[in-house]
Design a protein that fits this description.
The protein has about 375 residues and is an alpha/beta fold. The chain has helices spanning about 25-35, 50, 55-65, 85-100, 115-120, 125-135, 150-160, 180-190, 210-220, 225-235, 250-260, 270-285, 305-315, 325-335, 350, 360-370; strands spanning about 5-10, 40-45, 70-80, 105-110, 140-145, 165-170, 195-200, 240-245. It has an 8-stranded parallel barrel with strand order 1-2-3-4-5-6-7-8, surrounded by 6 helices. Strand 3, helix 4 and strand 4 (about 105-110) form a beta-alpha-beta unit. Bound molecules: iron/sulfur cluster (SF4) (2 copies).
Length: about 375
């Protein structure tokens, strides 16, 4: 694995955009072949992707059509789909069968946050991972993580057996107080864990930046695509071994593989341009909260006001309407804090806010966005 760019299999080409299981197999086959021909080897799927069918699609287009030693395959244990140790064993065996392999190169506990971590402890999911590794059915054991740096630090301290972590890293979430990419990255580095990056383009949103930002990028390098800036930003961070991108067209694949074939980290000048792009994106921000956190102290409902506002801003910028990543962070945060909808309008926070934000009204908008959104499609 000498190229740090992986094929994310959560947004595969479809024949019918309204049917997540209507794979365009012909296109996917061609994309898989081209990806391998260009020297890339890493494929990332999960039990739950594409209405629980992504693993089947990977078997048909990749595993059945190529030698096992030509590619590396990663998949994930769905933390919400098991209720016992036996369930985990059954799902793991089902995954081997669905993928048509007898081992996984990378196996992850999927979407670890405060609640799923408790569940992983209750059912010893970490022990299952270790056992499967000893049995030779997993080469590398890790987790994908969507919560605070403090929890990440705790988990990596208690579970040094994890070989790697998968984190959401992109230039717009790097300093986002709701997601804290930079601090999570620092924690993973402190523990010496290799990092796999998910959502480098934030669900496609960083492929569609405001015109003013696009102009800056194009002026500096007319041939570099807008997404290339986001993927190279993620790949440029220390300790990053792999950047995943969900691709559904050959055009995207050809673009991504062109600059990741011989990856060059961002230069100082390019980082500066990204800083300007972040400012332009943030200018179009729904709630001008500065994250000073003066409002939080004393909230009788323990509502994570600035973090919710940051996630809401991310959701409002989501030009592709893909707000699932913000929603996952909201779910994890609201497991420890009051939900936006729990606000009792005491207005204690408003008197503390130097930006004079109408926090109680804004929380109603946050609640309308996040307290009602379903997280994932359920298994049919
Ligand atoms: S108005 Fe709502 S958010 Fe503000 S302090 Fe009271 S309960 Fe908390
Ligand atoms: S006091 Fe106002 S600006 Fe500061 S974090 Fe709270 S809502 Fe944001």
């Amino acid at each position: 694995m000498d190229k740090k760019f992986g094929f994310g299999c959560m947004r595969l080409p479809l024949l019918d955009p309204n049917d997540q299981t209507s794979f365009d197999t012909e296109t996917f086959n061609k994309m898989v072949d081209t990806f391998l021909e260009k020297g890339f080897t890493y494929f990332d799927t999960a039990y739950v992707y594409h209405g629980y069918r992504s693993e089947d699609a990977v078997r048909e287009s990749l595993v059945k059509r190529h030698q096992r030693n030509e590619f590396e395959l990663a998949t994930k244990l769905p933390m919400r789909d098991f209720q016992s140790a036996e369930d985990m064993e059954r799902i793991f065996n089902e995954q081997l069968e669905k993928c048509g392999v007898d081992y996984f190169d990378y196996y992850l506990l999927h979407n670890i946050g405060v609640n799923s971590y408790k569940k992983a402890c209750t059912f010893d999911s970490f022990g299952v991972g270790l056992r499967k590794k000893q049995e030779g059915k997993i080469k590398n054991f890790g987790m994908s993580f969507h919560d605070t740096p403090e929890l990440l630090d705790e988990i990596l301290s208690v579970h040094p057996e994890l070989d790697f972590v998968q984190l959401q890293i992109n230039y717009i979430d790097w300093e986002n107080p709701g997601i804290q990419s930079r601090r999570c990255h620092e924690v993973a580095r402190k523990h010496g864990k290799p990092i796999i990056v998910m959502e480098p383009c934030k669900g496609g949103n960083l492929a569609l930046v405001p015109e003013k930002a696009k102009k800056l990028m194009k002026e500096y390098n007319p041939t570099a695509s807008v997404p290339s800036w986001a993927i190279r930003f993620a790949a440029s961070q220390e300790g990053v071994m792999m950047v995943l991108s969900g691709m559904n067209t050959m055009e995207q694949l050809l673009d991504n593989t062109s600059y990741m074939a011989d990856f060059k980290p961002l230069s100082k000048k390019e980082y500066k341009i990204i800083g300007q792009v972040v400012n332009i994106i943030n200018e179009n921000t729904a709630i001008p909260c500065t994250s000073c956190r003066y409002c939080e102290k004393g909230c009788p409902q323990n509502i994570a006001i600035p973090d919710y506002f940051a996630l809401y801003n991310g959701a409002k910028r989501a030009v592709t309407n893909n707000i699932s990543s913000q929603f996952i962070y909201y779910l994890n945060l609201s497991a420890k804090h009051g939900k936006a909808g729990d606000c009792i309008s005491c207005k204690q926070c408003e008197s503390a806010c130097p930006q004079h934000l109408k926090i109680t009204e804004l929380l109603k908008d946050v609640s309308a966005t996040f307290d009602v959104t379903p997280a994932f499609p359920t298994k049919k």
